[in-house]
Amino acid sequence: MATDETIFDHLKKEIPVDEESLLLNPDSSVGLVIVDVVNGFCTVGSGNMVAPTKPNEQISKMVEESAMLAREFCDRKWPVFAFLDSHHPDVPEIPYPPHCIIGTQEAELVPALQWLESESCATLMRKDCINGFVGSMEKDGSNTFVDWVKEKQIKAVSFLSSV
Length: 163
Known about the structure:
With 163 residues, the chain is of the alpha/beta class. It has five helices and four strands; from the N terminus they run H-E-H-H-E-E-H-H-E. It has one domain (33-161): Rossmann fold (3-Layer(aba) Sandwich), CATH 3.40.50. It is globular.
């Protein structure tokens, strides 16, 4: 990889992806899914695992874009689903060190998204594993994420992830 070539440029060559604008009309059946935009992954000095140790422009931009899109979706009364990495202290997520322990700031939404906690447009799902779909499984066999998609009649989903 050339020194002036960014990792993103390199990936675009290796994994061609068509970039295009997505225009949504008021009748769109869309939903926004935000994955792990929690302090433990995104807020400087707030995490035991991957939170930045100093300001990081890429993470800051991702958080800013996530908040902007979430606000736009809620203003339009479109549904937002946010997965929050959230673990019990006595249940390890191997091979990772303890992180995002329930009840700590690590497991909370970043400040720019905390307003979602009181919005009717938002569904927050604490998950205790890396896979949100698996983390949405309930003891009765239902799946909170699948139920959300069905209830909201989602036809297209936009994903935003911190990792």
